[in-house]
Amino acid sequence: MATGPMMKEPRGRVRFLSDDEINNVRNAAEPDPVMYAAILVSLSTGLRQGELLRLTWADVDLTGAKVTVRESKNDEQRAAHLTATAVTAVKALRALPVVSPVHVFVLSDGTPLKKSLLEMRWNKIRTAAKLKDFRWHDLRHSCASILLQSGATLAQVGSVLGHKSPAMSLRYAHLVQGAPVTGHDKLDEKLKGKSK
Asked: Does the domain formed by 15-191 have CATH 2.30.30.40?
């Protein structure tokens, strides 16, 4: 089903990067410091493409390792954590010959990176990384999936992604079904009982 020129993402579609694919994407993007940083920030924070492209230096706290999303899809401001690798990539942008005093992601002439050019450059990286059936938005899914599989709760992932309701985070529930949750170890201790 189409809405304007954009195709809607199929309900329940969750495609995320494997460890090998992450390495392939990093290697393919590394020669392009702007795209390299954009990809790492997206994977680190789960920002939507528009949120990423609207980031200004005033939104980035490299010391505190976070970015502030002032304008989101659900009109709520939020902060998102930057991993150390993403912080390093963003710091490298400051060392480029052309740096905007306002925008984080810019072209070599200092103009802000727009969606069409991001997509064009992303397609080259995606092809070089040999990714199949993978869109930019799937970087957001990758962030959520990796966090969940590493022990984050659905509520925590919903907070990172800026989900307005817990129901939106449930699309990732299958990734943690059957996994122990915080408290299972204590429950097991009680079930063991006291030794006589």
From this structure: no
